[in-house]
Amino acid sequence: MSAAHHEVGGALPPHAETATLEGKNKVLGFWLFLGGECVLFGSLFASYIALRNQVPDGPTAQHLFSLDLVGISTFILLTSSLTSVFATMALHRNQFQKLQAWMAVTVLLGLAFLGLEIYEFVHYVNEGHTFTKSAFATSFYTLVGFHGAHVAFGVLWISLLIINGFKKGLTVVTAPKYYVAGLYWHFIDVIWVFIFTVVYLMGKVGP
């Protein structure tokens, strides 16, 4: 079925991502997966909060963090969450080309976020904030780096989804894949809001 055919309204049933039993199972299974991810990130947050003031010798959060840079990163990632919403809206309207386009914009914003995070980490290392410098450094890189790895995975996942979409189009089989990818992207955006608050804002304010 061609991409043009998928643009026609009514080509797919409403909420095509759950129109089949397989689709419903995929969405349900993914929600369960996100529940497990919440527990994992919760453990990392707890470890960071417990260790964030353990800096016997080395730069502190107040010295390191630049809210200007992190603010730009946050704006980019939150914007990507909005473009992901637009993609989901296009999915529900059977607008395949718009779905692909908004997903592509989401990927580009995700790459921009990763580029800024890599720049940030390099700057911190140059300031002496290496992974083994202190308990604070280790917990910081573990939490923020783990989130960054999730963003990188999301970028790769959505990119492959877009490429595969050009071959298979939008069907009741591919719709759940786009939908759960959107859920995943919203999840990592929400996690970043907590990181921005707990790590950067609290770190800049101090103990």
Automatic annotation (TrEMBL):
Residues 28-204 form the Heme-copper oxidase subunit III family profile domain. It is a multi-pass membrane protein. One of its GO terms (biological process) is aerobic electron transport chain. Pfam families: COX3 (PF00510). Coiled coil: none annotated. It is found in: Cell membrane. It comes from the Bacteria. One of its GO terms (cellular component) is plasma membrane. GO terms for molecular function: cytochrome-c oxidase activity. CDD domains: Ubiquinol_oxidase_III (cd02863). The chain crosses the membrane at residues 30-51, 63-87, 99-119, 140-163, 183-203. Keywords: Cell membrane, Membrane, Transmembrane, Transmembrane helix. SUPFAM superfamilies: Cytochrome c oxidase subunit III-like. Its main location: membrane. Belongs to the cytochrome c oxidase subunit 3 family. This is Cytochrome c oxidase subunit 3. The lineage of its organism: Bacteria, Bacillati, Bacillota, Bacilli, Bacillales.
